[in-house]
Design brief:
The structure is a single chain. This protein is of the alpha/beta class. The protein has a single domain, classed as 3-Layer(aba) Sandwich (UDP-N-acetylmuramoyl-L-alanine:D-glutamate ligase), CATH 3.40.1190. About 40% of the residues lie in helices and about 25% in strands. It has 13 helices and 15 strands. Strands 1-15-14-13-12-11-10-2-6-7 form a 10-stranded mixed β-sheet, with helices on both faces. Strands 3, 4, 5, 8 and 9 form a 5-stranded mixed β-sheet that branches. The longest helix has 18 residues. It is globular, with a radius of gyration of 20 Å.
Length: about 400
């Protein structure tokens, strides 16, 4: 396995120059056909008050640890915690990823829970920008408590019970389903954890795929989305289905650092230490060897690593100490990563594009277009030595 470690500043600069040149060429290329599903959330972004000075001025609780301490101190007592809604926006792994890819000039078909019988207002712009939208369920709702070091997502998910293979086929029709899953350049099936019937949906999709003719092998991207609450048996079955898609697709599994540890425990991965304590390099390579997929990527707030076609790559940064918005950062990372794969960039550049997309998003609170990605890459080049 070839190892590419982007720690040396000269190597980082060289890679970012390659990415910048690639971004200059993207605008002149035809967009790719991408199918994304299946969730949908109305996200309410919320600040947690630490101290309030007046009716319009307060100090936020800045870290999850501080918030946890506040809650822990109330054990056997009681406490009052004030929540301040700041933004109501489209949410869910699928819609945020789809929106980011639309902004990057790609041709998106979205299928999932954007409202039934009518599209919910928060998804109207997404629906306009997509080439095709098939919505067959009401969106779920998330209260996203935002902190400088992460977020706590409080979800109300009952509506996602309607995301089933039967409802999809009834709403779209088999001819459209065939087109969505066999004629796309990339299919993204995200938020497995919060969709109760995703394993059944995948089971039926595999049976359906076996009956189809594929002119090429599309990419099949999967994001499990924090599977901690699901049973070990469910997770193992999901991984079997994911591996099963390798018969028809080039399968990519995207994990954040926490999810990588959870999967490592479920499959009994042999590591030098506990999964949470090993380097991102070790866990990425070990997971890739064990799962044997076309590509596997693991990302954290500060760095990311991937294995694809026998090549390992790692990059650091660009780290943001005080993000404007973190809910959706991983979905923007996934969008950039998928676009990089579709453009057939070197793996280090794929990771850099993913990190640039998420890096712009956390600083600005919205997904970048191609020009903004170019500008952010230039900024990253000029500020490699510092957090910005």
């Amino acid at each position: 396995m070839n190892n590419v470690l982007l720690k040396d500043k000269k190597m980082v600069r060289a890679n970012l120059h390659i990415l910048a040149d690639s971004l200059n060429n993207i605008a002149f290329q035809k967009g790719h056909k991408i199918t994304v599903g299946f969730d949908g959330f109305v996200d309410e972004i919320i600040a947690v008050v630490d101290k309030r000075q007046s009716f319009d001025k307060y100090q936020r609780i800045e870290t999850i640890e501080q918030f946890g301490d506040r809650i822990s101190r109330s054990a056997n007592l009681s406490t009052n915690i004030e929540l301040v809604p700041e933004i109501v926006k489209l949410g869910g792994n699928g819609p945020i990823m789809a929106n980011a890819l639309c902004r990057m000039g790609q041709h998106i078909s979205y299928i999932g829970a954007l409202g039934w019988p009518d599209i919910h207002p928060v998804f109207q712009d997404l629906a306009v920008n997509c080439q095709q939208v098939i919505s067959f369920a009401e969106p779920a709702h998330t209260d996203a408590l935002e902190f400088n070091d992460g977020k706590i997502m409080l979800g109300k998910l009952a509506s996602l019970n309607s995301i089933t293979w039967e409802n999809l086929c009834q709403s779209a029709g088999l001819d459209t389903v065939r087109s969505l899953f066999t004629e796309a350049d990339l299919v993204a099936a995200v938020n497995w954890t919060m969709i109760p019937y995703m394993n059944q949906l995948w089971h039926n999709l595999l049976e359906f795929a076996a009956e189809q003719q594929f002119s090429t092998r599309p990419i099949f991207f999967v994001d499990l989305a924090d599977p901690e609450k699901r049973s070990q048996k469910d997770i193992q079955l999901a991984l079997e289905y994911i591996q099963g898609f390798s018969r028809y697709y080039n399968v990519v599994l995207g994990l954040n650092r926490k999810e990588a540890s959870e999967i490592a425990r479920v499959i009994g991965l042999r590591l030098s230490r506990e999964p949470d304590r090993v380097t991102i390099a070790e866990i990425t390579q070990a997971l890739a060897d064990q799962l044997d997929l076309w590509c596997l990527v693991v990302h954290s707030v500060k760095d990311a690593a991937a294995v694809g076609a026998g090549e390992y790559s790692y990059i650091q940064g660009p780290y943001c100490e005080k993000p404007k918005l973190t809910t959706g950062a991983g979905d923007n990372f996934n969008a950039g990563f998928c676009l990089g794969l579709l453009l057939e960039l070197p793996l280090t550049s794929v990771l850099s594009l993913a990190k640039a997309a998420s890096g712009f998003y956390v600083r600005n609170g919205f997904s970048p277009n191609l020009i903004q990605l170019q500008e952010f890459t230039d900024l990253w080049l000029n500020k490699i030595d510092i957090s910005f």
